[in-house]
Amino acid sequence: MSAGVCIMNKNGIALAADSALTVRGRGPQRIYNNGNKLFSVSKYQPIGAIEYNNAQFMGIPFEVIIKQFRIYIGNRKFETIEKCVSCFKDFLVKEPMLSQLAKYEKYFVERVAQDFIAGAGVDFNKLYGEAVEKNGSELKPEDLQSLLEQTVSISEQYVNALPELGTDIDISYIKNNYAEKIYEIIDNSFNFDLKTISNDIRLRLFNASIKIFEKRFDRAGYCGVLFAGYGEELLLPSACHFYIYGIINGVLISQPIEEINVTNEKSCAIIPLAQVDVMRIFITGLSDNILDAISKSIYSSIGEVIEKSCDEIQKKEIVRKCITSIKEKMALEFTQPVLSTVSAVPVQELTQFAEMLVSLTSMRRHVEDNMNLDTVGGPIDVSVITKSDGFIWINRKHYFDKELNPQYMFTHYNYGDKIVEKTKEEGDDEI
Question: Which H helix or E strand runs over 78?
Answer without folding.
Answer: none
